Amino acid sequence: MIKSGGMVLVRQIGYALVPMIARGVMLGADQPVILHMLDIEFAAEALKGVKMELIDAAFPLLKGVVATTDVVEACTGVNVAVMVGGFPRKEGMERKDVMTKNVSIYKAQASALEAHAAPNCKVLVVANPANTNALILKEFAPSIPEKNISCLTRLDHNRALGQISERLGVQVSDVKNAIIWGNHSSSQYPDVNHATVKTPSGEKPVRELVQDDEWLNGEFIATVQQRGAAIIKARKLSSALSAASSACDHIRDWVLGTAEGTFVSMGVYSDGSYGVPAGLIYSFPVTCSGGEWTIVQGLPIDEFSRKKMDATAQELSEEKALAYSCLA
C-alpha cells in the first residue's frame, strides 16, 4: 500500500492532482493508494469537501483519505510526498520576503517528513521557487537521502515536447529526449540538441526536421521559459492541469522507470556533472530504473548551450545564497 501525501492546495494544482493519483495515473493502474491531503487551517472546510468528492468518485484504487491541517498527521507513513504548497510572490514583495516565507514553510514540512515519513520516502517539490525549496527541504530532512528529493521541471520538459510537436505537426508521443537544464524559472534552458522524432523512416534529430536554428535558439526557448506567464495571462490563473499531470509523469517514471532509449528532466541534487556546481538542485536529463534516477552522462555540449547552462546555474547559486541568508 503506498500512501501518497503532500501539501495540497484545494484549488488549482492539488484539486487537479488528487483524482489523477486516485485513478492510478501517478503510480500505476494496479497500485492501491491512501491519500494524505494537507492544507492550511483557513482551507479546512474546503479540504473536507475535496475528501467528500474523492469518496463520491468511488475510485477503485483509493483505499483511504486523510484530510488534515496537521503537518505531522499528513506526513506520517507517507511513501511519496508531493509538495505543492508554498507562498506566492505578491505585489510589492521583494525576493527575500518571498524566500523567507518559503524557507519557513519548507523547514516545518521537512522536519515533519524527517520524523514521520516512511523510510525511503520520495519527495517531489512543485511550489516555487521549486529548486531552492527542495534544497531547503533537504537541509532540514537529513535522514532522507539526497537522491530522494527532487523538484518538478517535467512541466517545462513536457512544454518543450509540446512546442516541437506543434511545430512539426506530429504526435507529442513521437518526440523525446528534450532537456530542461537548470532552474524552474525563466532562466531555464530548454535544449533540443539531443531530441529526436519518430518518423516512418526511423528516428530523426529535431534540428534536422525543424530546419530553423533561429527559431530553435530563440522563439522556442523563450516560449518554453515564459509559458507559465502566458497561461496566467490567458487563464488569469496559474498552470494547474498541466502541472498536476507533469507531477504524475515525474513520479511515475521515477517509481516505474523510463522507457529504453528515453530520458526525461528532473531537478535533482547536483554531483558536479556537466560542470554544474555540486550542492545545487539543478534540472538534468535522467533515466530511471528500479526506483532510482541516474543523470545521463557524456552528452556533447556546444558553446551556446554552455552559456545557457552556466547562466541558470548562476541564478540557482544566488537563490541558494539568499535562502541561506534567510535561515541565518
From TrEMBL:
Enzyme class name: oxidoreductase
Keywords from the UniProt entry: NAD, Oxidoreductase, Tricarboxylic acid cycle
Family indicated by similarity: Belongs to the LDH/MDH superfamily. MDH type 2 family.
Pfam families found in the cross-reference section: Ldh_1_C, Ldh_1_N
Name of the protein in its database record: Malate dehydrogenase
Reaction catalysed by this enzyme: (S)-malate + NAD(+) = oxaloacetate + NADH + H(+)
Residue span(s) of domain Lactate/malate dehydrogenase C-terminal: 153-321
InterPro entries from the UniProt entry: L-lactate/malate_DH (IPR001557), Lactate/malate_DH_C (IPR022383), Lactate/malate_DH_N (IPR001236), Lactate_DH/Glyco_Ohase_4_C (IPR015955), Malate_DH_AS (IPR001252), Malate_DH_NAD-dep_euk (IPR011274), Malate_DH_type2 (IPR010945), NAD(P)-bd_dom_sf (IPR036291)
Oxidoreductase found in the keyword field: yes
Domain Lactate/malate dehydrogenase N-terminal: 12-149
Catalytic residues identified in the record: H184 (proton acceptor)
EC number(s) per entry: 1.1.1.37
Source organism phylogeny: Eukaryota, Viridiplantae, Streptophyta, Embryophyta, Tracheophyta
GO molecular function: L-malate dehydrogenase (NAD+) activity
GO-annotated biological processes: malate metabolic process; oxaloacetate metabolic process; tricarboxylic acid cycle
Annotated NAD(+) binding sites: D39, N102, V126, A127, N128
Residues that, per the record, bind substrate: R89, R95, N128, R159
CDD domains, per the entry: MDH_cytoplasmic_cytosolic
PROSITE patterns: MDH
